[in-house]
Amino acid sequence: MKKILVANRGEIALRIMRTCREMSIKTVAVFSEVDRKAPFVLYADEAVCIGPPPSSASYLDGSKIISAASKTGSDAIHPGYGFLSENPRFAREVQASGITFIGPPPDAIEMMGDKISAKKLAARLNIPLVPGTDHTISDFPEAKKVATGIGYPVLIKASAGGGGKGMRIVHTEKELRENLERASSEAKSAFGDGSVFIEKYIESPRHIEFQVLADSQGNVIHLFERECSIQRRHQKVIEEAPSSILTPEMRRKMGECAVKITSACGYHNAGTVEFLADEKNNFYFLEMNTRLQVEHPVTEMITGIDLVREQINIARGEKLSFRQEELSIKGHAIEARIYAEDPANGFLPDSGLLKVYRRPAGNGIRVDDGYEEGMEIPVWYDPMIAKLIVHGDNRLRAIERMLRALGDFSISGVSTTIDFCFFVINHPLFRSGKFDTLFIDNHFSPLDNRPASEEECETAALLAAWLTVNRTSGFQVQSDNSEERTPWRKRKMYR
């Protein structure tokens, strides 16, 4: 394998290309017209423009990508995450063209990409499942019967896709019909498949996932867990590894389940098996993502293993070079996703010019990004600017390092989630590890994170000057460590 085309953009394309360069493998970038001067395009050995900005006309057009791979003599295609990474049809077309697809077999993608078939497989393997249907629900009378049988609240979920789309929590029968229709319509729009199913809604759950690797010789291992419970709109914002709630025994059991279902579906390459854990630490299989995850760097930080390198080696037919018993957790890692979003306005995506873009640096800090100062954040794609990852000897050290790194990350020109991430990481519940997937809904208020007005900044400056004068004259001001603080002290001001 001497040349790999990366069928993606931004930070993940650049991240994959860096590993390829370390392995002395040439890379090809495919890009839309708006990404012509993006860092990943400039970093690649070759680059091919595949169309206008809309994803449907560029990054989601499999025929253009395969054609670019053929014209450039690429041996393989790495899909990254998102776009076509979990599209079994694209994977089959890549293989049919004589090019290696760096990912799992199309049949495994198809099986595990459908949540109903994945649940049926888990049931056959006696892996714990959330109570619910093992088939899609198409009409209200059946939905009503199922919901009554398992008890409210229930969760309506799209059978295809993920990312929180086609997902609705229903607390009463009165809400059922409307939410059933909305979930189906949203799933149809997002994934081209309106199929939905119903399961019991686990209140105050933790979202925990296990990274797996499998080679084509039948060897399967897991690389421990990631905690992904800090979410907005069912999409992850902050991840860490390991989880603060898993005991060694719970980790062993969940890891065994992850390996079991990975083996059973004929899987090879990298994947992630996701679970929910309730307040009593009972865990339930949720789904499997048949690709590299956005949050894969925290696993790399605690294991020292380059997951992209392993993906490439597996795609070349190589056997895993390590065994389960040789792996161990080294320290603690946290990832904060830095989005061009306005947390004070419902996390509404933002776009515009990066007037200032200065990354944090130092020991134990990694930044995976795809932008430079002066670049535009386009409206066409996911608004993630960067992933900030830190590693420490223990969880407290990682938290301290993340707070410092967030404070050193300077961005202006667009609204970002930097200060929101600071709020979360510094919150007593996060520090204690006592949080769940409802953390943002229950504990975050836009007032905690909105930019300070000019009037508030002026008031704060005047008060600071007054305190300085009075301290100089010997006047003592008592420190207030209580939770009741004035707004300007309670929140971290935007730069």
List the helices and strands and how they pair.
Layout: E1 3-6, H1 10-22, E2 26-32, H2 39-43, E3 46-51, H3 62-71, E4 76-78, H4 88-96, E5 100-101, H5 106-113, H6 115-124, H7 140-150, E6 154-158, E7 168-170, H8 176-191, E8 196-200, E9 206-214, E10 220-232, E11 235-241, H9 248-264, E12 269-277, E13 283-289, H10 296-303, H11 307-315, E14 332-339, E15 341-342, E16 348-349, E17 352-353, E18 356-358, E19 365-369, E20 376-377, E21 384-392, H12 395-408, E22 410-412, H13 418-426, H14 428-432, H15 439-443, H16 454-472, H17 487-490
Parallel strand pairs: 1-2, 1-4, 2-3, 4-5
Antiparallel strand pairs: 6-7, 6-8, 9-10, 9-12, 10-11, 11-14, 12-13, 14-21, 15-16, 17-20, 18-22, 19-21
Helix pairs in contact: 4-5, 12-13
Give a written overview of the molecule.
With 495 residues, the protein is of the alpha+beta class. It has four domains: 3-102, Rossmann fold (3-Layer(aba) Sandwich); 131-200, ATP-grasp fold, A domain (Dna Ligase, domain 1, 2-Layer Sandwich); 206-446, ATP-grasp fold, B domain (D-amino Acid Aminotransferase, Chain A, domain 1, 2-Layer Sandwich), CATH 3.30.470; 454-490, no CATH class. Helices cover 35% and strands 23% of the residues. The strands form six sheets. It has an eight-stranded antiparallel β-sheet, with helices on both faces. Strand 9 (206-214) and strand 10 (220-232) form a beta hairpin. Helix 4 packs antiparallel against helix 5. The protein is globular and about 70 Å long. The protein starts with a strand and ends in a 5-residue tail after the last helix. Mean pLDDT is 91; it is low at 475-495.
